[in-house]
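Q: what sequence does this backbone want?
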């Protein structure tokens, strides 16, 4: 039998190679320090992946909730008059309401005013709406804390946000005073208009700033209060799908029957959502560095393992193991750390992301503190939204870094000279 027939190279990733890779991962007294490095590499990758999945999910949840509540209160498209007042708002609204994908068309009188009660004062955004329309604004109608919106058109009262009611110490049935500088014109100039209204309903939007500054009143009352001539200042259009804004704007231009100034939520909140997007990218980069550091630990651990196993490598080479087989053994050894850390980190991260609100409540009860004050974070609770694409991106990044980290030590092991290793090993 010839030497070629006796020394037959093993197939790539054969059981023999997996056995050696598994043996090198086990803890022994001689390689104790190497095993400690491998353990810290595993923990680093696991924690990095878990934190990255958790942070990205929390930022996704924050953005989704914020967008949902902002757009649920104000709409997706905003139309205002260009050349003449919007006195024909009823006809224009009816035409736009027939467009496919339009959920609600809300003609509105908007204006800022000072608000006060015997117990405090502040500023607010006054919105005059039709009685039938306010019942369709889910962010208001579905979040009533007290009072009613029935017969709102003829109530002569106002609905206010929960935080505004709290700041002014108001309840349903109390009187709130509104003042605007845009009152009636007199020989001495424009006189401010001051008027008191009964609070007929209190709602909670879930956004601290909006809850502290929102006041809804019947549209006719708002027209009188802001001295408007039976017109509206804006028409808000709510869509079933916010991503179809551009196509809907083109259809509005075709059916409106009059020139309109058009704005949409992407323009109105561009700076705000742009900042959230930058924050998301920065979080990905910063936390991703944790995974990178853990991957670098794999390199140092594998280099030490190759040095420690130089005699074993030499013996394997003299027994017929190819350079490729040696490289695959150490590649599998190092990659196993990365794969195990990535899997464990993914499971841990998903568990935290799916239970973020429960974890927040537990920590708050344990420490008796508010971890998520709405005055700072706008929203009144911690929200998480797991996106499969983001999780997959994190997993692929961790696996790629782990695999790249093992290439150089594996290559060093494969090019080791058996004679030199046995002589000096």
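A:
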């Amino acid at each position: 039998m010839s030497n070629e027939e006796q020394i037959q190279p093993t197939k790539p990733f054969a059981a023999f190679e997996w056995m050696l890779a598994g043996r090198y991962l086990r803890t022994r007294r001689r390689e104790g320090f190497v095993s400690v490095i491998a353990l810290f590499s595993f923990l680093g990758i696991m924690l990095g992946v878990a934190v990255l999945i958790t942070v990205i999910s929390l930022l996704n949840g924050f953005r989704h909730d914020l967008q949902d509540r902002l757009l649920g209160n104000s709409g997706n498209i905003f139309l205002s008059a260009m050349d003449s007042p919007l006195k024909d708002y009823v006809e224009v609204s009816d035409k736009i309401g027939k467009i496919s994908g339009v959920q609600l068309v809300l003609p509105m009188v908007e204006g800022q005013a000072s608000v006060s009660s015997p117990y405090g004062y502040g500023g607010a955004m006054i919105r005059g709406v039709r009685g039938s329309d306010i019942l369709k604004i889910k962010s208001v109608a579905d979040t009533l804390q007290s009072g009613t919106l029935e017969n709102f058109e003829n109530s002569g009262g106002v609905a206010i946000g929960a935080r505004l009611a709290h700041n002014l110490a108001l309840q349903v049935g109390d009187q709130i005073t509104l003042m605007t500088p845009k009152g009636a014109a007199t020989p001495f100039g424009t006189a401010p208009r001051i008027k008191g209204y009964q609070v007929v309903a209190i709602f909670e939007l879930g956004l601290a700033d909006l809850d502290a500054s929102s006041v809804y009143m019947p549209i006719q009352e708002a027209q009188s209060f802001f001295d408007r001539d039976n017109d509206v200042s804006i028409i808000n259009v709510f869509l079933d799908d916010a991503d179809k804004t551009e196509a809907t704007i083109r259809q509005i231009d075709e059916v409106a029957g009059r020139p309109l100034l058009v704005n949409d939520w992407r323009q109105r909140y561009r700076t705000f959502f742009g900042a959230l997007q930058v924050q998301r990218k920065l979080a990905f980069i910063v936390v991703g560095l944790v995974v990178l550091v853990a991957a670098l630990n794999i390199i140092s651990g594998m280099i030490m393992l190759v040095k420690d196993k130089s005699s074993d490598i030499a013996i394997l080479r003299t027994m017929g193991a190819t350079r490729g087989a040696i490289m695959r053994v150490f590649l599998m050894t190092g990659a196993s750390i990365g794969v195990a850390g990535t899997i464990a980190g993914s499971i841990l991260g998903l568990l935290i992301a799916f239970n973020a609100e429960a974890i927040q409540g537990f920590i708050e009860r344990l420490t008796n503190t508010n971890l998520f004050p709405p005055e700072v974070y706008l929203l009144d609770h911690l929200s998480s939204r797991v996106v499969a694409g983001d999780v997959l991106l994190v997993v692929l990044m961790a696996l790629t870094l782990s695999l790249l980290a093992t290439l150089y030590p594996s290559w060093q092991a494969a090019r080791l000279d058996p004679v030199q290793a046995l002589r000096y090993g």
